[in-house]
């Protein structure tokens, strides 16, 4: 039985509604029932009230759509169970007593919902209440729906919105029924699932193999029309839309090129936001390729099936009036705050600035130091490529084992860069260009850390060529790494080698110091510091999550820094 984060299996529907009301000052519970009502019921006097509902487990439907401009109330049953007649009738009575000028029940096309809402309607009518009912069946799954008709699924949410906007504008019950009935005929929905769902305390209602997906299943886990191998998102979306608009499918949605639609990309509960965005983009592209204008796109969780990993696509054909109703304001917490404008895959991108104001232009690589710089960079690159496997092996203790790959990527990028053009002539411009290169090509935290170091070091070298400038540059680079990276000497990172080398380079500030001797001392200090990390406890970086008893080798970042400094000699 799958794990669920509930207080009790039997009370989960009640607890969920209580949580919703606790967090929303505009909602109230009807005492003794799973009924959510607007807190401003007196405002309903003289207007049409709207009531919907169904089983729990489809959150935020339907209680999330209670608010000004949408539903006046919502009735919930137990998980995947139709609400009882008594609760529906109690909700109708509450709205009638508030002075509603007629009540419309918006019901999804399931036998239990039709029976229970229908029975409550008949009872209310016998009490003299003006109640009507619209049944929504928007499922495009079955080519021959049969006597039961099309199931009511996520398209019902758009019907809530159309009806709510009409009621808020003061439309009468006859007008709302007429326009909502027309809108419900212009809506189609199709679902696609990668996994089953499970009622709290129960096993999943069905099984899907790891390489399978199911087309057209219902929001309670009812069987769909076809199981197939998992497809890439764009192909899956294309399959869904083809099925929805296939004229040979008796439950298809008839759309012609040039028409406008509202698109709803609905998370069935367990799909990641990343996947949902991919599906949404694919749907917009596919519809545009068919000549269909996506006047509005709503992307999110609107009508779920517990934790089912899947998505449904809903299309509603709209004209100007229907689009205005979709755009009308509502306080319902689950309705998204979408901008008034079409969705398109052809959105113009913001151009990238070609030159950064104030950044000095690179000088051509013709200075006397260019061959020297190329030789040093080539030795550094060769060294990093030679120790790639060693760095990976050291890094595996911290979990990912990619330190060698990351540094090798940097080495290859530097080589390709040098072959494409001579390096800049001045040390400042050289380090600045290397910083840009590593930020773009190296990847990982290392790329950013080296980028920080080189950018700050380059700033210290502007207009300077004296030996002391290199000591200042080293200190500036380390300061930048510490400021943003959060590590310090002794934390078992590349900083240990860098700080040891920097300490030795301070001798360059002494008049008459031999730069070669100072560099030799810096390399020796870095190598000793790298070896000393073997006995340190990691306090920063990914290795800090590993028990120190497992870290028996030197830190790979510190080893890489020492090796690069050694290659300079």
TrEMBL record:
Keyword terms of this UniProt record: ATP-binding, Cobalt, FAD, Flavoprotein, Kinase, Lyase, Magnesium, Manganese, Metal-binding, Multifunctional enzyme, Nucleotide-binding, Phosphoprotein, Transferase
Q: Name one GO molecular function term.
A: metal ion binding
Q: Where are the transmembrane segments?
A: none
Q: Which residues form the active site?
A: 220 (tele-hemiaminal-histidine intermediate)
Provide one Gene Ontology biological process annotation: glycerol catabolic process
Q: Which positions carry the signal peptide feature in this UniProt record?
A: none
Q: Which Pfam families match?
A: Dak1 (PF02733), Dak2 (PF02734)
Protein task:
Catalyzes both the phosphorylation of dihydroxyacetone and of glyceraldehyde, and the splitting of ribonucleoside diphosphate-X compounds among which FAD is the best substrate. Represses IFIH1-mediated cellular antiviral response.
Which lineage do the record's taxonomy fields give for this organism? Eukaryota, Metazoa, Chordata, Craniata, Vertebrata
Name any cofactors this protein relies on.
Co(2+); Mg(2+); Mn(2+)
Q: Which InterPro entries match?
A: DhaK_ATP, DhaK_dom, DhaL_dom, DhaL_dom_sf, Dihydroxyacetone_Kinase
Q: Where does substrate bind?
A: 55-58, 108, 113
Record's protein name = Triokinase/FMN cyclase
Its Gene Ontology cellular component terms are: cytosol
Q: Which reaction does it catalyse?
A: D-glyceraldehyde + ATP = D-glyceraldehyde 3-phosphate + ADP + H(+); dihydroxyacetone + ATP = dihydroxyacetone phosphate + ADP + H(+); FAD = riboflavin cyclic-4',5'-phosphate + AMP + H(+)
- NCBIfam families per the UniProt record, alphabetical: dak_ATP, PRK14479.1
Q: Give the SUPFAM superfamilies listed for this entry.
A: DAK1/DegV-like, DhaL-like
Give residue ranges for domain DhaK.
8-335
